[in-house]
Structures are given as structure tokens and as C-alpha cells.
From TrEMBL:
NCBIfam families, A to Z: ksgA
UniProt xrefs under PANTHER family: DIMETHYLADENOSINE TRANSFERASE (PTHR11727), DIMETHYLADENOSINE TRANSFERASE-RELATED (PTHR11727:SF7)
Residues of the Ribosomal RNA adenine methylase transferase N-terminal domain: 25-197
Localization annotation: Cytoplasm
GO cellular component, one term: cytosol
Protein name according to UniProt: Ribosomal RNA small subunit methyltransferase A
Gene name of this polypeptide: rsmA
EC number, UniProt record: 2.1.1.182
Reactions catalysed according to its record: adenosine(1518)/adenosine(1519) in 16S rRNA + 4 S-adenosyl-L-methionine = N(6)-dimethyladenosine(1518)/N(6)-dimethyladenosine(1519) in 16S rRNA + 4 S-adenosyl-L-homocysteine + 4 H(+)
Length: 268
């Protein structure tokens, strides 16, 4: 839709605006979503509608969340020939996704996210993970690599553990800078996230879990015994069947869950 005369504003850097124009990539995203009748689709950051209008053509109805006031009128106008577009003009970090699913729907989220906000958006959405069926997001490739990394990998870290604890993470395909206007400085990738069922996650206290993961990786070079000295002693780590002299970067997600549950239980 970048040819539309209605979208006359230049891209805004502070809003992370890099508009997709490569047909093949746009089609790949629509195929990855493959909307089925009855799906409740929500796009974060529709911009000039590169993904929005093909999705609308495929599905007939779509909710979008856009912060840039200059895009609201052109989106409304251009949508008329495509289908029912519900526009929420708001900062996505202030959107209550649970309210969007108040009628019992489960949400399918899509977005070429503003890269400067991708982590806050991911963590905000995860707070509503119980109403989200899946997410198909374009992110910096480096972020997708970190999200999907396995223990022992150089990029395995806090983001890997937090995401994998709550979601199945599947990288789908890479996207070069030339697919966007203006091109970003970094490579991008599309990833699918599917929230795990609440009873499969097994985390007893989400705050303790997040604190343990943060502290463990905050002191990456230290052993768990030292990195977590504010949280617990070595005996408790051992009782959770985790080696106190291991380092966070070697620890599987399930070990973080066991360890944080043991710490939460010791405080109860
Ligand atoms: N989906 C379009 C595309 O692929 O061409 C635009 C993607 S662009 C990378 C990111 C979009 O997110 C922009 O439209 C930008 O205005 C919007 N955006 C930035 N910050 C936002 C926020 N806090 N809440 C909602 N939308 C935001």
C-alpha cells in the first residue's frame, strides 16, 4: 500500500517505522498466519497497511493497534475497499488484550514490531498469554536468535528463558533490510510464538521466577550459588536438583522453573 496517495507522511524514526514492501515477504507472513474463519486477528503497528490489507482481504475482519495519529485517517480510508478494520489508536503497551478477548475469543497476534520497543511489547503481551492463541512477529534477527537459543549457546540468556518458559518459539524465516523502506540497519526474522497451556508451564510464582532469571543472568560469569546469593543458599539450590556451581547460561528452562518454585516455597 506504499503507493497509496493517502499515506503522505515520511516514516518516523522514533516510532520504529520501517515499512515492508517486498511482496514475497508479505505473502510469507500472511501464509504463516493462514487465518481460519472465526479467528480474532489483531495486528500491532499496521503502519501503511503492508500486512493489514492482505490480511483483511484474506479474512474480512481485523483489529489493529497503531500509535501514530497521522496514520489513522489514511488507514480508515484505505480499509473501506478491503473489509472491516477496527482501529485502536493507542500505545500498544496500554492495550488490555484480555479485554479484547472478553467474549471468550482467543487472539492471534501479528506484527512487524517497532524494534526499539520489541522487548517491552513481548513482555506486555505475555502478561495476557492466556487469551493469546499465537503470535507471528517480525523482529530483529538477533532478538529472534536469542529467543530461540538453547542452553550453552552464546546468545542463550534472560530473553530465551523468559520466552521459552511461557511459549513454544519457532523461527520461521529471515528478512533482509532491503525488504523495508527505509531499510533498517540490521537483519530481521519472522518468528512464531505459541503460548503454553497454563498447567504445562509449572511456574508457581511468576515474580519469583522472573527475579531468579534476572539475577542469574545479571551475573553471567558467576556460579548460581554466587549470582543468587540474595535469593537463596547453596543447599536450597541443591535441594531443587540444580548444581550450585553451574552457570545460568548452561541451565535448561525446566531447571529455572524448579529452582524458582523451591525458592517461592521456602518463602511461603
Ligand atoms: N506493519 C507495517 C509494515 O510492516 O510496513 C509497519 C511496521 S513498522 C516496523 C512499526 C509500526 O508500529 C509503525 O506503524 C509504528 O507507527 C507503530 N508503533 C510504534 N510504536 C508503537 C506503539 N507504542 N504502539 C502501537 N504502535 C506503535
Amino acid at each position: 500500500m506504499s503507493h497509496s496517495p493517502h499515506f503522505s507522511e515520511p516514516p518516523k524514526k522514533h516510532l520504529g517505522q520501517h515499512f515492508l514492501h517486498e511482496r514475497g515477504i508479505i505473502d510469507g507472513i500472511v501464509r504463516a498466519v493462514s487465518p481460519k474463519p472465526g479467528d480474532r486477528l489483531v495486528e500491532i503497528g499496521p503502519g501503511q497497511g503492508a500486512i493489514t490489507f492482505p490480511l483483511l482481504d484474506a479474512h474480512g475482519e481485523l483489529t489493529v493497534v497503531e500509535f501514530d495519529r497521522d496514520l489513522i485517517a489514511p488507514l480508515t480510508e484505505a480499509a473501506k475497499s478491503h473489509g472491516a478494520l477496527h482501529i485502536i489508536h493507542r500505545d500498544v503497551l496500554a492495550v488490555d488484550f484480555t479485554a479484547l478477548a472478553a467474549d471468550g475469543a482467543s487472539l492471534r497476534l501479528v506484527g512487524n514490531l517497532p524494534y526499539n520497543l520489541s522487548s517491552p511489547i513481548l513482555f506486555h503481551v505475555l502478561e495476557h498469554a492466556d487469551v493469546v492463541r499465537d503470535m507471528t512477529f517480525m523482529l530483529q534477527k538477533e532478538v529472534v536468535d536469542r529467543m530461540a537459543a538453547a542452553p550453552g549457546s552464546k546468545v542463550y540468556g534472560r530473553l530465551s528463558v523468559m520466552l521459552q518458559a511461557y511459549c513454544h518459539v519457532t523461527p520461521l524465516f529471515d528478512v533482509p533490510p532491503a525488504a523495508f523502506r527505509p531499510p533498517p540497519k540490521v537483519d530481521s526474522a519472522v518468528v512464531r510464538l505459541v503460548p503454553r497451556a497454563a498447567d504445562a508451564i509449572g511456574i508457581d510464582d511468576a515474580k519469583v521466577f522472573a527475579d531468579v532469571v534476572r539475577d542469574a543472568f545479571g551475573q553471567r560469569r558467576k556460579t548460581l550459588r554466587n549470582a543468587l546469593s540474595r535469593q537463596c543458599d547453596a543447599a536450597l539450590i541443591e535441594a531443587a536438583k540444580v548444581r550450585p556451581d553451574a552457570r545460568a547460561e548452561q541451565l535448561p528452562v525446566a531447571d529455572f522453573v524448579r529452582l524458582s518454585n523451591a525458592i517461592a516455597a521456602s518463602r511461603a
